[in-house]
Design goal:
The complex is a heterodimer of chains A (about 270) and B (about 200). By secondary structure, chain A is of the alpha/beta class. Chain A has ten helices and six strands; from the N terminus they run H-H-E-H-E-H-E-H-H-E-H-E-H-E-H-H. Helix content of chain A is about 60%, strand content about 15%. Chain A is elongated and about 80 Å long. In chain B, helix 3 packs across helix 4. The chains are: A alpha/beta (about 270), B mainly alpha (about 200).
Chain lengths: ~270, ~200
Amino acid sequence: MERLRTRWIIFLGLAAVVVISYTMNLPFKTSASPATEKAYKYIETLPESSVVIISFDHEASSLPEIQPIALAMLRHVFRKNLRVIGLSLFAEGTAIGYEMLNRTAGECNRNYGRDYVFLGFKPQYISAILGLGESIRRVFPEDYPGNKTDTLAIMRNIDTYDSVRMVISIADGDRTMQWIEYAGARYNQKVMAGLTAAMITSYDPYLSSGQLFAVVGGLRGAAEYELLYGRRAAGNRGMLAQSGAHAYVIALIIIGNIIFFRSRRRKREG
Amino acid sequence: MRTKIPLLVCLVFGIMMFGQYFSAHPIAKAVYNNILEWWQIIFAFTLLVGVASFARNSLRNISQRKEPIHRSIALAGLLVMPVLALIGGTKTGSPFLWSFQNMLAPMQSTVFSLLAFFVASASYRGFRARTIPATILLVTALIVLIGRIPLAELISQSFPKITFWVQDYPSMAARRAILIGIGLGSMTTALRVILGIERTYLRGE
C-alpha cells in the first residue's frame, strides 16, 4: 500500500512538472551542439535546387519528439529552395510524412511535383534502399497520390543517388542504420539523421566515424535547430517541459538515495 | 529432398549475391535488380500473412470470449482503415488521414508517454548506490542527465563538456565493441547459413 502511494505521488509530481512547465512557455536558451550545427550549416551551404531525400522512418508514437525535428528541417530545406523527395520506410510514417511535407511546402509556397514529391511507402526497407541506388523510378513507379513518377518535373534527370546530395532519415529506431549501411556503404550516399533522444547514443559510433554525417537529436536538437533557423516552434516549447521532467528525475534519484542511506544507517544502528 | 532443395537455393543465391557485389557486368546488374524486386514482392506477401493471422487470432479469441471487446475494437480498426482509404483516399483532409492523425497518433503517443512515468518511478526505486559499480553508474547517469538540460550550462560550462566526454569515450568504446561483435557474429552466421551448416531456419532439420 505504501509502495503504491509513493508511486502515485511520483506520477502526479511528474504530471504537474510537465503541465506547469509546458504552460509557462519560457524561451529556451542554449548553444547549439556541434552535431546540430553541422547539419544546419551543411543544408545552408547547399546550392539552390539541390535534391535531398527525406525519409520518414518512424512510428506515430514518437510524433511529439519527431515532429518538431522534421518540421524544423523541412522548413529549412524549403526556405533554401532545395528540391525534396519524400518517402517512408515505415508504414506509419507515410501519412505523417505526407502531411508534414504538404504543410511546410504550403508555408513556403512550394509546388508539388516541381519542388517536392512524396513517393510513399515501400515495405522491405533494405531492398528499397538498395533499389533507390539503381533506379528510383523502378522502386517507385508512382508517387503517393498516384501520379506516374516519370511525369513529374522534379524527377527529370533524377533516378539514382548520384543526383541526390543528402538522405535525411527522420527515425525513432534503427532505420537510419540501414541507410548508413546500404546507401552509405554501397553507394557513397551522404546520410544525415533526425533522431529521438533515446536513439542518439546508438548512432554515436557512426557519427564519430563520419559514416553518419550529422544528427539532430531529440527535442533538444529540434530546439537548437529552431534557434539556428530563427523561428521558435514546438521544439522550444517542449524543451522546458522535458528539462523540467529531467530535473524531476534527477531530484527523485537523489531523494531515493538519501532515503536508502538513512534506512541503511538505521538498520546498522538498530 | 525437403531440406536439400532449400539448402541448394540458399547456397546458390548466397554466392550469387556475394559475387554480384564485385561485378559491374550488365547481367550481374540485371540479376541484382530482379532480386531486389522479388524481395519486395515476397515481403509484401508476408504482410498479408500477418493481417490474416491477426484476423484469425482475433476471431478465435472473440468466439472463445477472451477479451472480446478489446479484440473486436482491434479487428474493427483493421477493417475500417482500409475501407476509409479505399472510399476517400489518403490525401490531406481525407477520413483516413483524419482518423490516423486524430485517433491512432494520439493513442500511440499517449501509450509511449506513459514510459516517462515508469522511468521516474524506477529511477526513484532502482537507481541506488548499493555497490561500487552501481555508484559509478549512478554518478555517470547523473552527469549525463544534468548535462542534457539547459540548466547545466548555468551551473557550470563544463557540464556539457563532461557529458560529451562520457558519450565520446567510455560509452563509445563499449558501443563499438558491441557493434564489432555483432558484425562478426552476423558474418559468421551468414556464412554458416550459405554453406548449409546452420539449419535452424529449416525447423532444425
